[in-house]
Amino acid sequence: MNSTYSFRSYKSVATQTAPPGQLVVMLYEGAIRFLERALDGFQYDDPKEFNETINNNVIRAQDILIELDASLDLDQGGELAVTLRGLYNYMHDRLTDSNADKTPEGIHDAIQRLSTLRDAWRDMLAQQGGYQRQPAAYASLDAAY
């Protein structure tokens, strides 16, 4: 067994065994990373590189938003789940507009909102003694989206 395979296996297990609250934080962080990469695309002079970098990373962040939305339990989550659904849909729409128009405003807006949500989840988990950063698991999120 080579070390690359072992590392990939570890990342997969780390993602699959993380507590649900920590997975939410990881998803927020993954979406933020993809959106930061999308913003990097605005630096490129080459039109192909410019468009592909923005488009591919915005779509990956939108995929995460879709996953977060799909995981909401509106019966159990009540008003919070309904609010989050609206927020996820709003960010998805803003990212669609930014991607289509190749403008950074919607991307910046989504990063700000995702960062606020991530920080709130981190604080809540830390108060419960359940937040532990798992750096290796984040790479597997990149591969999944």
How do the helices and strands line up, and which of them pair or pack?
Elements: H1 3-17, H2 20-40, H3 47-70, H4 74-101, H5 105-127, H6 135-144
Structure write-up:
The chain has 145 residues and is mainly α. It contains six helices and no strands. It has one domain: Flagellar protein FliS (Four Helix Bundle (Hemerythrin (Met), subunit A), Up-down Bundle). The radius of gyration is 16 Å and the shape is elongated.
Strand content: under 5%
Number of domains: 1
Q: Which regions contain 5 or more consecutive residues with pLDDT less than 50? A: 1-15
Distance between the first and last residues' Cα: 26 Å
Total beta strands: 0
Compact description:
By secondary structure, the protein is mainly alpha-helical.
Task: Note the main attributes of this structure.
Four Helix Bundle (Hemerythrin (Met), subunit A), 6 helices
